[in-house]
Structures are given as C-alpha cells and as structure tokens.
Amino acid sequence: MILKIGTRGSKLAMTQSLWVKEKIEAKHPQVRVELVKITTTGDKILDSPLSKVGGKGLFVKEIEEALLEKRVDLAVHSMKDVPAELPDALMLSTFPEREDPRDALISLDNRTLDQLPPGAKVGTSSLRRGAQLLHIRPDLKLLSLRGNVDTRLRKLTFGELSAIILATAGLKRLGLEDRITQVISCEKVLPAVGQGALGLEVRRGDTQTMGLIDFMNHEPTEITVRTERAFLEKLEGGCQVPIAGFATLDRETVHFTGMVAELDGSRLIRDEISGNKNQAEELGVTLAGKLLKDGAAEILERVYGAI
Predict the structure, then answer these.
(1) Catalytic residue among 43, 47, 73, 81
(2) DSSP-derived secondary structure for 12-57
(3) Distance CA 198, CA 97 (A)
(4) Of 272, 266, 269, which Cα lies nearest the Cα of 291?
(5) pLDDT at 55
(6) pLDDT of residue 108
(7) Which of 120, 178, 230, 252 could form a disulfide with 162 if both were Cys (CB 3.0 to 4.6 A apart)?
C-alpha cells in the first residue's frame, strides 16, 4: 500500500513530514509512504510581510487542494499555520505530542531580551510576537523577517539584525537548539495558537488513512490545541494578527490563557480561564468572548484596518 503525504518543501516541513513517514512505516511495515512537495502561496511570496499578503491559510491552501483532489492522502501541518476554519470535506484527525511551544530569541552576542541595547533591530515575521515585544521593550526597532530558518539565521550572522525571534519547536526539530540565546517564557510572550504542535489532516470519511495514523494521537495535545483553535475561531483571527493563546492540561483540568494586542504593543488584553477538559473548546470560546467585551473587538477592528 502507498500512502502519500502532502508537505511544504521547506527544510523544517520536510523534517516534520519525514518524522511522520518513519513513524507510519515503523508501525505499518506493509505501507510505503511517499512525500509529495507542494509549494504554497506563503512559500512563493517572500518579499512582503505575511500580514500584507492577505488571506488565511497561506501555508496550507494548496496542500488542502491536493487532499481534496486525492493527489495526496494526508497533510502534515505546523498547527500555527492552519486557519481556524477548514474546508467541509477535510478534518484534523491526529495531533502528535507537542514540542516546546515557546518562542526563542537568538542574538548576535548572547544578549537576552532584557539585555538588548536601546533601539536594537529585531527580526520577526509575526505581528503577535512584535506586539508583545514592543509591550515589553517599546524602544526596539522591529524589522520584517521572511524566508526559511537558514535564511533568517544568515541575516543575523551578517549583522543586519541584533536578534531574531523564532519558534523553539522548529529550532529543536532542525537540531539547532544550540543557537538559542533565550527561550522566552509564556508569561512574557504568549505563543501563537497551536505553536509547537503538528496536525495531520485527512479527508472526512477516509477511515483507512485515519486508522493508519491514529496511534500517533496525543490526547493532551489534541485537547489543548482544540481549546486554542476554538478561541481563534471565535475571534475570527488568522495567523497574521496579534492574537495569542496557550492551553495546558493538568489531569482533568484545562488552563487556558488568551491575548489580543495593539500592533504597537501599547495595549495588551490578556486573561485566563480554567475548566474541565470535556468543555475544552467551550473554554476557548468563553475567553474569546470575554476579551472581545474587554476591548479586543475594537483592537481587532483597528488591526484589520491597518494591515
């Protein structure tokens, strides 16, 4: 049997998909897994910030089209790239155990966020990261940073920037953990919804593929990521807006923190909620509603008007 995985062609995406391929083939020796590289809109447009490109699903749309057209059987996504709403015929069936969800600072001279000099140039592709960084350090000069991890690291090495911010999970998966100067706590900078987690997307009703991959599902990861995504969906947010959310599971209890911020970091609305894991998605929706009442609605309206 041949199982085709649709994946972006970046080094990180290929590493993640290869990991899934090896897991499936080890569990099911009768299955041969092939990786199918698919170029997405987000991969093609590298000269503009993601927020300026517009639209949702910039790194998944073309892969989902391949799934719908049955050119591939399975998609491996970084969950932070996946829009809250999926095509009706597709579903996220499996969530492998989450890697470290936090952001990482890499600086030229091993300075932490607090130690960067006034006016330091920091590269980031994320409005979420930028807003929270400016909330902590309004003096920093943020510059748009696109491209794969190697490209971003080169810009730092050549002295164009004092520091860059990347996802810890991606650096670990690429074996670049030793480049990290500081892993930034979630109390300081809240991660993107789904950050550090992978999601395996399939066609609804494709029980054969689901049956091959369900052994990889990690229940705590599924519960917490679904909480975060329910929050994002209620806010009608994409991955290019300053929205953040992170949930943890402690036995039967989900603890969830969500945030919406002004682009310049001048105002940051953040709150928490806890409840039983059986109401995980309801918790995300409830906290989103509270933030909207507390001023997030006005912030998001301004942000969408500015990007």
Answers:
(1) 81
(2) HHHHHHHHHHHHHHHH-TT-EEEEEE---HHHH--SS-HHHH-SS-
(3) 8
(4) 269
(5) 54
(6) 87
(7) 120
Bridge-based pairing of strands 141-144 and 121-124 is parallel
Q: What's the chain's length in residues? A: 307
Q: What is the pLDDT of residues 15-61, one digit of tens each?
A: 999 999 999 999 999 999 999 999 876 665 655 555 554 555 677 88
Q: What are all long-range contacts of 19-22, with beta carbons under 8 Å and residues at least 24 apart?
A: 19/173, 20/74, 20/76, 20/96, 20/198, 20/200, 20/213, 20/216
Alpha-carbon span 98 to 217, nearest angstrom: 10
pLDDT tens readout for residues 194-246 = 999 999 999 999 999 999 999 999 999 999 999 999 999 999 876 557 999 99
| Token digits of residue 201 | 């997307």
- Pairing mode of beta strands 198-203, 90-94: antiparallel
Dihedral angle computed from the Cα positions of residues 233, 238, 243 and 246, in that order, rounded to the nearest 10 degrees: 60
| Known active-site residue 81 | yes
Domains defined along the chain, listed by start = 1-96+197-217 (3.40.190.10), 103-184 (3.40.190.10), 219-307 (3.30.160.40)
What the block records as the tokens of 293 is 């009442």
The first and second tokens of residue 116, run together, are 């960067």
Q: What is the pTM of this model?
A: 0.91
Q: Cβ of 263: how many Cβ atoms within 10 Å?
A: 18
Residue 117 pLDDT > 60: yes
What whole-number distance in Å separates Cα of residue 88 and Cα of residue 105? 38
- The structure tokens listed for 144 are 């748009």
Least Cα distance to 173 among 8, 18, 43 occurs for 18
The pLDDT, as a whole number, for residue 53 is: 47
